[in-house]
Design a protein that fits this description.
Strand order of the largest sheet: 5-6-8-7
CATH class of the largest domain: Mainly Alpha
Largest sheet: 4 strands, mixed
Number of helices: 11
Number of domains: 3
Order of helices and strands: EEHEEEHEHEEHHHHHHHH
Number of strands: 8
Distance between the termini: 37 Å
Length: 336
């Protein structure tokens, strides 16, 4: 930290000198404007970036260090989430077809990533999405709508014996992952670029809350997939309709508490958030009862039922987590 003394000039203006190293690094010249932003904690932020622009950040991957396609895909995803605007993949020789397949898969799994240039030994990916055009609230709502439908369809598929519907639930999980990665990327960008925070009119702390909620919804989606996969087993084994009715009832209870937790985010009600936490706790005995029905089942049926009961339990607990996050956020910002 550098210390600067406040001086008075002209009898009414308070001034401090700027660190010479910072001025040179930012290439600020005489009479150039500099933004002064008051932060929530009372500190001041100085920035030469008066309007948000997509500051170019480049990440390069040399294939000599990424021989595994899976490793390359994970690394590309990491670069995307970290907020790099340009990703360059290079090779000493001709880029193998498997790598090009990985790049295609990456562009399909992410939002806003497109191949800008391509040659025999290099591929350049660029981000074409303006983060401010995708508000957090809209993305969270979209994630919720998809996951809610996944959960409902998993239960309906079991109840009606519809294999194709249960299989479709798993296929939709990719859409949820894409949206979650987008939220994670935007959160990373806001943390590193205060100008974007101003443009999107969202404080970094609130962006962090949306990221936490996004992560939970993504996990609820994973459990909806688990339920649908277990439902396929029970459908094939023609499990007793009485058991199916018990599963459906428990599933509707877990879905209801999840729906309430999402609605509470927008209602900003601490009493409702507290009621959700208590309701989630009260549902625990029901999941234990559902698990107990496996004692007289065949092994495959028992494993599937246990997976369903555990996933429904986890969904209700995740709903409770959302309520806790909401309470913490509202208390911290003094919102009513």
């Amino acid at each position: 930290m550098e210390i600067r003394k406040v001086q008075i000039t002209g009898g009414s203006s308070y001034v401090i000198s700027l660190p010479k190293g910072w001025v040179r690094q930012q290439k600020i010249e005489k009479n150039d404007p500099v933004g002064v932003i008051t932060q929530a904690d009372g500190t001041l932020l100085l920035t030469p970036n008066l309007t948000y622009d997509s500051t170019i950040r480049i990440k390069e991957f040399s294939l000599r260090d990424y021989s595994s396609p899976d490793m390359l895909l994970r690394s590309l995803t990491g670069a995307y989430i970290s907020g790099f605007t340009t990703i360059r993949i290079t090779s000493a020789g001709r880029i193998p077809p498997k790598v090009r397949q990985v790049v295609r898969k990456f562009t399909q799994l992410t939002i806003g990533q497109e191949v800008a240039e391509e040659s025999d030994n290099s591929i350049i990916l660029k981000d074409i999405l303006n983060p401010s055009e995708m508000p957090f609230e809209n993305t969270i709502r979209r994630m919720y709508v998809i996951v809610k439908a996944m959960h409902e369809d998993a239960l309906y598929a079991l109840e009606q014996g519809r294999r194709e519907l249960a299989e479709d639930v798993a296929a939709r999980d990719t859409d949820v992952d894409r949206l979650h990665w987008l939220v994670h990327r935007q959160f990373s960008l806001i943390v590193t670029n205060p100008a974007l925070s101003r443009r999107m009119e969202i404080a970094p702390t609130k962006a962090a809350t949306y990221y936490q909620i996004s992560r939970i919804i993504e996990r609820v989606g994973d459990h909806a997939v688990t339920i649908s996969e277990a439902a396929l087993v029970l459908i094939d084994m023609k499990v007793d309709h009485i058991i199916v009715a018990k599963v459906t009832k428990a599933g509707e209870a877990s879905l209801d508490i999840f729906n309430r937790s999402i609605k509470a985010i927008y209602a900003k009600s601490i009493p409702e958030a507290n009621a959700i936490i208590e309701a989630a706790y009260e549902l625990k005995p029901g999941y234990h009862t559902l698990s107990a029905t496996t004692q007289k089942m065949r092994v495959k049926e028992a494993v599937a039922m246990t997976a369903i009961a555990n996933s429904m339990h986890r969904i209700s607990e995740y709903s409770s987590d959302i309520a806790e996050i909401l309470i913490n956020q509202m208390i911290g910002t003094d919102e009513d």
